[in-house]
Protein 1
Amino acid sequence: MTPAEHSPLIRKLSAFVALSEVELAVLARLHRRRRTFVAGRDIVHQGQSEQTAYILSTGWVCSYKIQADGTRQIVDFQVPGDFLGLRSVLLRTSDHSFEPVVDIEAAEVLTKDLLDAFAETPRLATAILWAASRDEAMVVEHLVGIGRRDADARMAHFLLELGSRLLLVGLGSKAGFECPLTQYHLADALGLSAVHVNRVLRQLRETGLVTFREGHVTFHDLDRLVDLAEFDPAYLDHSGPLLN
Amino acid sequence: MTPAEHSPLIRKLSAFVALSEVELAVLARLHRRRRTFVAGRDIVHQGQSEQTAYILSTGWVCSYKIQADGTRQIVDFQVPGDFLGLRSVLLRTSDHSFEPVVDIEAAEVLTKDLLDAFAETPRLATAILWAASRDEAMVVEHLVGIGRRDADARMAHFLLELGSRLLLVGLGSKAGFECPLTQYHLADALGLSAVHVNRVLRQLRETGLVTFREGHVTFHDLDRLVDLAEFDPAYLDHSGPLLN
DNA sequence: CGCCACTTTGAACCGGCTCAATTAAGGTGG
DNA sequence: CCACCTTAATTGAGCCGGTTCAAAGTGGCG
């Protein structure tokens, strides 16, 4: 079993940069403190400033903010290979909450271990920060979607983005992927009501573009879907981290 | 004239961390290459990957993405003291465009100079990265606003945030600030139509909360405005950069 | 003086919301 | 194995916030 199969993070980074033996070893070391969390119970609460980050290895998490009136906005989802709370470790700036969508497995990364790893292999630091900046680009794209795309395009774009991300870590294929999200998750992420999410999904299904049912997303017509969403994966690829 | 009056960036950072003489000198050095840009002509185009960042000293800029259908979403505004394209320098990830809202003055910062400065005074690196993470928190808050706040609250929140930011660099006061944005800018930033922006502004004015007229924002009733917007400045303050 | 960019207002429309009810799909205790 | 409960998905009906289209007003500037 190659390291890439061990850790989705290693797999993701490897897709963009060739990691040396040393770097792989350092990465593996970061995976030592394994933790599990149950679905629905927050890992970090808004405002609470944590000293630890996590590398998600299995399951999905969402990061969100709750408003005073109780409405919730999901800012991003984390899938295997993604960091949780990386920024809050590096800059003590945690200002949203993390909720596991399903039971998850994650590696706890202490600030010290991370900084040590960065000191030991600066290329790894660059690669990880690159991944973080990619996450940020997704947040920006998300903002654009909510601000300027109608519900259908928004949903299409969202599903395509998720598909791309999962493909990178070996979950799912061009034909589709397993997706544990409820329609409430989709609603809170896309700035829609759950009811309308349901109608949008129905329409996408009936027009033969994509089906989301029983935890599985199936792409029926990628071309038309990309077209509807005006999906341009440039913001996900952007040339990989430049090393040295 | 103190350095703080020279540069809004120095002023902003000084509000959160005491800068040493050396750090002030290094910062001053970063301000050497002065440039001007005229309103309306993009500084960096979407996709184009620039090697330089800028520190904005006077005027306003907006960063935005254009979609295929021509609609535009403004992701953020930069005001004096803010960096332009910091991320694209550090990580070669420019994926949006920058347009000066008015004629601006900015200092060009070459990648090399920035990295040298970071090497010379690591505390400065931390402080600047902290400012960058603050920008990011603003993008997240912006996302929440578009996704889950109605037009009135969205506008109120936006104006309050701008007020806070400007206060920090000595532009404007608790009573209001100069604002060169058109209602089209507001519309593209808030995900609304220009027509509706106009109506929202009228209502805020008529209910005695805030006036936006002839390039000037005047807060009439901060308490009620904060209340309407559910404005919690925590995401702007978050404890300052931790140094050493 | 006349143009141009921006603001303002009205009227009609519609995308997405709310409220409400029904169905489907697990789990759980008995 | 069934009765029950809970959570998620589904669908209908009516409403409303915000949009589009259209037109008029305002102010700065060459």
Protein 2
Amino acid sequence: MKNTAQERDVFVAIADPTRRKLIRLLADSDELPLYEITTHFEMGRTAVSKHLTILKEADLVTNHKKGRETRYQLNPAPLKEVKEWLSFYEDFWNDRAALLKDILEE
Amino acid sequence: MKNTAQERDVFVAIADPTRRKLIRLLADSDELPLYEITTHFEMGRTAVSKHLTILKEADLVTNHKKGRETRYQLNPAPLKEVKEWLSFYEDFWNDRAALLKDILEE
DNA sequence: TAGATGCGACACCATTTGGTATCGTAATTA
DNA sequence: TAATTACGATACCAAATGGTGTCGCATCTA
């Protein structure tokens, strides 16, 4: 049996502007079927579906079937990994900024 | 005259694990020449150089020549864009977390 | 029941990505 | 001066990415 829950890097998932738009779209509504989502983009249903699959593999969206529709929902939790990665450099650029400030004030 | 400062998406720049490792490496030291950087990776100098070029196009690193060396330095500033993008969803997952907590406590 | 709708699964294609090896040149060192 | 080192530039390649169109099936609806 193959592992259907293919792993996917969150950083890769959010690298694409279409996928960031998808994330935002799903953040603004509770859940949406594929055909609805597709109307917000200038590409075919298949392409949108592929992007959603990538987001799903990164665990950023979940989906369930409702009749003949497939409803998609956002799961923002994995974004915490990005936040944690960033926090290290946040300190860093604050230090840099502070350092620069010191130099300018001399 | 062509614009040498090619634009590059910060999100794309940090999507690659090698490039995140590069960022971290440069964060830990003030500046490093290419040959030095290359010793930390299991790939050729050309490949590392390409990754550094992408980081440079995203303005995440700067470089200057010092004798025959090319020294690379980190510029964490563009990461702020990622932070700002994230901040929206940070609120969002806090709300979600709070909501879930409410449901569980009923 | 017949048609329309929503979607997954493919097959396909152009472009990008991430790596290689090689060559030429400028700077350092013996 | 001669050899070595550091690098940019280029050509090349396999695999991944981001899109298309089509087919078939399940589910609504008239």
